[in-house]
Here is the input.
Amino acid sequence: MNIHVVVLAAGKGTRMKSAQSKVLHRVAGQPMIEHVLATAAALAPESTTVVVGHQADACMAALDGASGLKFVVQEPQLGTAHALLTTESALRGRIGTLILLSGDVPLLSAKTLHDLVGRHTSAHAAATVLTAVVDAPQGYGRIVRGSAESGEQIARIVEEKDASSAERQIREINSGIYAFSLDGLFDAVRSIAAENAQNEYYLPDLVQIYRRQGRVVETVTVSNPDEIRGINSRIELAAVSRIVREQKNTELMAAGVTIEDPATAYIDRGVTIGADTIVHPGVSLEGRTTIGAGCEIHSGARIVNSRIGDRVQVFNHCVITDAQIADDVNVGPFAHMRNQADVRAHARVGNFVELKKTILGAGSKAMHLAYLGDAVIGEKVNIGAGTITCNYDGVNKNTTVIEDGAFVGSDSQLIAPVTIGSGAYVGSGTTIRENVPPGALAISAGKQRNIDGWVEKKSKVRSKK
Ligand code: UD1
Ligand code: CA
Here is the structure.
């Protein structure tokens, strides 16, 4: 089918009032241009070219991972027609259909894109414009159609700033998304002039040029105008994010997930959740997080790029990033698991416990106030309150190994590298500097001494002063 996609993303986005490129601002957790590229990929295009300009280096760096993208730099940015012209050499010799997308219109669906390509192809059109009929057309280019006798065909597009007051009443708007036949396209775009209120080269002017030449210009009108909402301000950014989240929440609920308050569930598009999991109010589930079935995620939890098994309880205010939690585990409240923390089945992690690069083996428990970093902890181990793995000696991070069935008493410091053998006991308040053999008890505190009558003597001394 010879489809070539071009995404315009060079504009400054003045109304965002930002030092960062507009298209890198996140919509529901993901840079808005990534939403656009994901949708474009559904067309399986032969090529995808992104026009960058403002903050070009940052844009290219941010999209570095996306495979097969070509970039062209538009400098200076003289308007949307000028932006398309900069892709001419990248597309030289190509035939077929060019699909032009805007980096700031992230809600477009793959179905609508397919409809656009379908209509464009079947009509043998030179250009097909995606339009929408909206209640508030302010800020958009308006679609001016010919008389009823002429079949009300599209005649031209007029920008808000150039429109007469009658034209401003028109509620059919230009989405900024088009299909173009590559045949003769760049020659026609080159003939566009910048004689308008903004002194910019307007791509929508191509409609009138083609109509005068007698070439076919078609339109496709989206049934859901939300799809073509452009983001120009932070207010629109928030509104579009809310729409993406609503869609995601609706999909999850339809698939059997309970979301107690969809208005405060912040679930990114890439997250998966199993049936019968309950998400409480005020929860953030981000990135490539997967959550199994029958879990309960309580308020204030934030889970990023993590894998959570089935029947897991995440109590209030846990922060879980880049971690893995197996089936039937309870964590929190107020637990922090990060950087390859790996909590195995039936384990328990309680309040104010931090796990970093640590395996907590099946059925093991760390219920209160502990730091477990760079540790390999076996099965059915008990970690007492206030236990700290002293993993950092100022130069290196060292490993603590705690074997199956060991019992670490409260307020112990384990100075790594060190191993606590299987079934061994560490007495409360012990500083462990050497390995503890399996089955042994380690204690480091001296014998306790009680001084009888100390309090009374002390108070007599004080009263003499
Ligand atoms: C544009 C359309 C308008 C349409 C609206 C839909 C024009 C002149 N107007 O207006 O009819 O209703 O989109 O959202 O095209 N860009 C560049 N280089 C430039 C200028 C813009 O790459 O020199 C990019 C921007 O980064 C953005 C897109 O093109 O991604 C649209 O530009 P923007 O300035 O936002 O156009 P609008 O005023 O919204
Ligand atoms: Ca725009």
About this structure: The chain has a mean pLDDT of 96. The pocket of uridine-diphosphate-N-acetylglucosamine (ligand 1) is lined by residues 8-11, 51, 53, 74, 77-80, 82-83, 102-105, 140-141, 157, 159, 173-176, 202-204, 230 (CB under 6 Å).
